[in-house]
Each structure stands twice: as structure tokens, then as C-alpha cells.
Amino acid sequence: MKSFLLKVSLLLFFLLKITNGDVLFSSLPRSLFVVVSTTEGQVLKAGEDNITVTFGLNQTVTNQSDESYKKVKVKLCYAPVSQMDRKWRKTNDNLKKDKTCQFTMYNKPYERNVEGFKWDIEKDVPTATYFVRSYVYNDADEEIAYGQTTNDKKSDNLFMIEGISGRSMSIDIASICFSAFALLSLVGFFFIEKRQSKVKS
């Protein structure tokens, strides 16, 4: 009896989640393929490099229909190694609370096969290890399927992006010039002061 009540409670909890509009990542079928131009371990630079992404319906998955697919979003996602001790990047099975994929690379109506698109890595992308994931949405704007470039453990086909540190060569050169000017000015004022004191004496 207790086990029956527990099962009923879990079922009601799950149904409540669905009625609240929460979508669990674990409930989504992996019905899309996603391919990127990056290679395993490649290091790209934010604000300079770009990524070419191709995605579409995974033909190896049988008995699937894409009639309910209305929109596609392709996102740049943090790999587990770059999520450790960072709550603001934490993975959550509830997609409303999930913070794995924070950068949208593509957001358009669904097409069965997309030839590919090029995404320029934005300047605000931080240094981290990444993979790419796509979601398809229904009329209610809810995720109903996904695809990604890595395996389920998110341990292969990963690449790295090197973020902008806030310093550039021009800033470094300017700071050196200002420092040299300040030093020369100080030395110059010292000699002028010394010379004026000699003249007075």
C-alpha cells in the first residue's frame, strides 16, 4: 500500500511539473544531429574567431515525426570541467533552472536540414571549455527535442574559447608611454629645480 501511495505521489508530482510548464532535459529525445567546425581541444579566441554549425533531423532515429517542431535554438554550452565550483553555470534537469547553455548562436523557425551557419564568437564569451547543443520548440515555446556535439557525459568533442582579458597591446603600449613620460617629467622638474636653486645662490 505504501509503495502504491508513493508511486501515485510521484506521478502527481510529475504531472504537476508538466502543468507548471517545466520541461525536464532527461525527458527529451535526442532527435537532432549537430556538427561544428571545431576540433577536439581546439582553442578559439573571443571577438576574433568563428564557428560553423550544421544541424538537422537525425535520420538514424526511426519512427520520429517533426510535425510539431516549430523553432530551433542553437546554443553554446559549458562543459562540466568549466562548471565546477561555479553555481552560475550549474546544470539542472529542469530546463527553466538550467544554466549550462547561456549563449544563443541561432534562433529561427525550424527547417529539416540547415546547410550551416557561421557564428562569430562574441566578445563577452568567457574563457572556458564548451560544446554546442540545439533545442527544438513546439507552438507553446517548450523544448521537445535536442541534439548536441558531445556525448551524454559531455566528455568528448569539446573545444575551448579564450576570452578577452580586458588588456590589449595598444593599452599596454599606452601605459608604457605614459609611465615613461611621467618619469621623464619628474627627472626634468628635478633638474630645473636644482638649476634654479643654483642661480639664486
UniProtKB/TrEMBL annotation:
GO terms for cellular component: plasma membrane. GO terms for biological process: nitrate assimilation; response to nitrate. It comes from the Eukaryota. Coiled coil: none annotated. GO terms for molecular function: nitrate transmembrane transporter activity. Residues 1-21 form the signal peptide. Pfam families: NAR2 (PF16974). Keywords: Cell membrane, Membrane, Nitrate assimilation, Signal, Transmembrane, Transmembrane helix. The chain crosses the membrane at residues 173-192. Belongs to the NAR2 family. Involved in nitrate transport. This is High-affinity nitrate transporter.
